[in-house]
Amino acid sequence: MKSESREPIFKTDSKTILIFIVPILIISLLLFRNLFFKSTYLLKSFGELSVDPEIAFTNNKPTFLEFYAEWCEVCKEMAPQVSALKDEYEKNINFVFLNVDNQKWGNYIQKFAVNGIPQINLFDKNGNLISTFIGKQDEIKIRESINNLEKEEKPYEEIMNAEFSTIQENKNNEVSPRSHG
Predict the structure, then answer these.
(1) Would you call 160 helix, strand, or coil by DSSP?
(2) CB 50 within 8 A of CB 95
């Protein structure tokens, strides 16, 4: 008989515990969502924070140009580093962020032969391409290249890491003979 009386109490206690835990988890997620989803949020904000590429290449400032995509895991991983670089250098350097999924940037994607992301191109104040970084990179290496933008003699360098995302083909706006009726 004692076991019968314990069973309803246990069921009541577990329901009470669940009633308290679920709201606490939901509130925690809401309060700390920026910590949990910071890199995704940063990537989404890059496009809004970007200098227009036409302005960047004509205003006599060095330019940091990053090709990225919101679905790219390596881009998400590097977003906090890139954001820190932007915060530090944005007074002296143009920061341009181009989402490879936006057809508006197709001419830049072709011009700079983007086939893996993230791809970071660094240009001197005259618009000359100085460095290209493809894939996951160490912040220190990018920082060194940024600091070298001010030097007069700058040989071009390409730094590639095997850890990158290939660009996914966007077939949403593809035209075929059958697509017109």
Answers:
(1) strand
(2) yes
Q: Residue 97 pairs with which residues in a beta bridge?
A: 66
End-to-end CA distance of the chain: 76
Closest CA relative to residue 98, chosen from 134, 47, 167, 165: 47
| Distance (Å, whole) CA 119 – CA 158 | 10
Contacts 24+ apart (CB under 8 A), 27-30: none
Eight-class DSSP state of 178: G
Question: Which of 42, 74, 75, 98 is an active site residue?
Answer: 75
Q: For the whole model, what pTM was predicted?
A: 0.67
Q: What is the spatial distance between Cα 153 and Cα 46, in angstroms, rounded to a whole number? A: 31
**Inter-axis angle of helices 73-89 and 38-49, to 10 degrees?**
60
Q: Quick check: is 75 catalytic?
A: yes
Over residues 79-116, the pLDDT tens digits come to: 999 999 999 999 999 999 999 999 999 999 999 999 89
Q: Specify the pLDDT at position 85.
A: 93
The encoded tokens of residue 133 equal: 């970084």
Is 96 noted as a catalytic residue in this protein?
Answer: no
